[in-house]
Automatic annotation (TrEMBL):
This is Ig-like domain-containing protein. GO terms for cellular component: extracellular region; immunoglobulin complex. PROSITE patterns: IG_LIKE. Gene3D superfamilies: Immunoglobulins. Keywords: Adaptive immunity, Immunity, Immunoglobulin. It comes from Oryzias sinensis (Chinese medaka). Residues 15-117 form the Ig-like domain. It comes from the Eukaryota. GO terms for biological process: adaptive immune response. Residues 95-111 have a biased composition (Polar residues).
Amino acid sequence: MDVYHKGWAGRHINPHIHKVLSEQLTQPASESLQPGERLTITCQVSYSLSSYYTGWIRQPAGKGLEWIGMKNTGGSHYKDSLKNKFSIDLDSSNNRVTLNGQNMQPESQNFCARKSH
């Protein structure tokens, strides 16, 4: 069984995504998925989704961090090799950012993070 941990990345991950001390990003606890199952992870944030990009990063077991993409109400950016495998959806009225995709990496941890200005 593959485990997807959902937590907040609190260190520099990508030159464009940084730790944020004054904002909250909350994700549910870990859950298990079978290979090929649909991955859906929602991050609840305390800031305006029109003001900041929210990014998603994954870390397969035993490997380094990999940037998936980021989105705000004005647009989105994805890693070229992953842009057809993942989508990021915004629910601005509830301050939620959702990562959708196929379960491709066994025991992968997935993190949301806010891009600083």
